[in-house]
Amino acid sequence: MANYYTDRPEIAFYLNHPLMRRIVELKERGFSDKDTYEDAPVDYEDAIENYRRLLEIVGDVAGNIIEPNSESVDLEGPHLENGRMKYASKTVENMEAATKAGLWGMTMPRRYGGLNVPETIFSMASEIISAADAGFQNIWSLQSCCETLYEFGNEDQRKRFIPRVCSGETMSMDLTEPDAGSDLQRVMLKATWSEQDGCWLLNGVKRFITNGDSDIHLVLARSEEGTTDGRGLSMFIYDKRQGGVNVRHIEHKLGIHGSPTCELTFKNARAELCGERRLGLIKYVMALMNGARLGIAAQSVGVCQEALVEATKYAAERAQFGQTINHFPGVYDMLSRMKAKLDAGRSLLYHTSAHVDIYKALEDIQRERPLTAEERAEMKKFSRLADAFTPLAKGSNSEYANQNAYDSISVHGGSGFIMEYKSQRLMRDARIFSIYEGTTQLQVVAAIRYITNGTYLGIIRELLGEAVSAELEPLRQRVAALADIYEKSIQTVKDAADQEVLDFLARRLYDMTGVIVMSLLLLRDASVAPEMFLRSAQVYTRMAEEEVMGKSAYIASFKPEDLKAFRAVQPGE
């Protein structure tokens, strides 16, 4: 039987991440749960073993239920009945299997019925499930909305809603509207306090809502009458049991067919405030989006993996001109690049997840007791690192998923264009990854200040200072040379002192940042496990050289007046 965890030992490698011991120590609070909960670990080794067993269960469900159901789900998709969304029949089977296996509320504390696993382990599970069916991963991974409810809701709300999610009920985040996509300041769904009903009433329309007919919704709405910007928005909890929300339409999409994308109408829907008024966009959506972006990074890695599996298998079986096509340089070049992108992106994903784990665990501890000065400094450090790495992880991995899916079809040749082969579905599914939860362009916007203020350069210099194996030292020196070129390119853009030039060249700097960071992370991994990562480190370093040298040459020769050739022609010009 297939197991999407044990069959991919690279995932388990990151259970030994250098920060994992600290993560477990913080998450388990000195293993204090062991006296209350039978399944709580008693020490670090027991915690790691618990994670292994959990991931084996995820891998079993993914490989033997979710993946075999994926084609049927893609063909059937969800449908609309009397204002309600109905999942595809095999999606229902997937949800029942995940519930039976206890795979809901994974990161939530045990006192609410959760498994209390770190974000890193949840990301591993997300990757595994995405490799089986990216559409189902969307539905399942939205349980992470619980994090926002846990962080900003009150204790009564936690006790009422979180156990329901831990037992298998679904969630959604209802943010976007017909006139408010990336620009969420324009949200106009109205929230009005009703003295008569003793609750908030929501009225308006939400569009492009993933899993929009879920059991529990987090809804961004305008609570402050007369406002038009983000300061008038608050976050609300809507319980489907209360009624007042109907599904008006289910989008007919290119991919991720199993994941329903809904247009919702709110008519005096009863809701309750989550956290404080006016902080909905400024604080709570930012927390939601950072979690969602990490989820898309994991989703992307899963599809990268599956695209590589499909391409490798086909290339080893397909014979042309007297030999299998994996012996042709044009094909094995593609396959080696796919593997290198997968390994680099995965390393970045779990490096980012580890940073998130530490600062979120310390934030949680801070709710119970004052932090020490050392803990406050640690929280500040890792919060900043998480903010810097998240847009890199989401943007880079979502682009790699698209590239690997595209190349998988190329390896298949004409067969890849035929619907019977999985690679076409992977490409259709992957296309949304670099769009939703913030396009790659928006990830560049989020990352650019860390480029210009030297944060990433400092991280790169720190990684360059780490020792690598003797075999990898020449590669480390080549990456060090790339870092010098990168630093010069940043300075060139800053010296232009032109915001439009910075905005135009930002994507080039972002891509250079990503490949240098991922090269160094791969060198670290390959020093520990050369049998897994040496080849990818060699291939990826060459890819990084190709990327950095080309983009640095572009930046070096660019002049502000060159923008005239690129500006879109406006109507009437």
Protein architecture, described:
This protein is of the alpha+beta class and 573 residues long. The protein has helices at 9-13, 20-27, 44-76, 89-100, 119-132, 134-141, 145-152, 155-166, 280-317, 329-366, 373-412, 422-430, 440-452, 455-464, 473-496, 499-528, 530-557; strands spanning 79-81, 84-86, 171-174, 190-194, 199-210, 216-222, 233-239, 245-250, 261-274, 319-320, 323-324. Helix 9 (280-317) packs antiparallel against helix 12 (422-430), helix 11 (373-412) packs across helix 13 and helix 14 runs parallel beside helix 16 (499-528). The longest helix is centred in the C-terminal third of the chain and has 40 residues, at 373-412.
In short:
With 573 residues, this protein is of the alpha+beta class.
Descriptive tags:
single chain, 573 residues, alpha+beta, seven-stranded mixed sheet, two-stranded antiparallel sheet, 17 helices
List the helices and strands and how they pair.
Blueprint: H1 9-13, H2 20-27, H3 44-76, E1 79-81, E2 84-86, H4 89-100, H5 119-132, H6 134-141, H7 145-152, H8 155-166, E3 171-174, E4 190-194, E5 199-210, E6 216-222, E7 233-239, E8 245-250, E9 261-274, H9 280-317, E10 319-320, E11 323-324, H10 329-366, H11 373-412, H12 422-430, H13 440-452, H14 455-464, H15 473-496, H16 499-528, H17 530-557
Parallel strand pairs: 3-6
Antiparallel strand pairs: 1-2, 4-5, 5-9, 6-7, 7-9, 8-9, 10-11
Helix pairs in contact: 2-10, 3-4, 3-5, 5-6, 5-9, 5-10, 6-9, 7-9, 9-10, 9-11, 9-12, 10-11, 10-16, 10-17, 11-12, 11-13, 13-16, 14-15, 14-16, 15-16, 15-17, 16-17
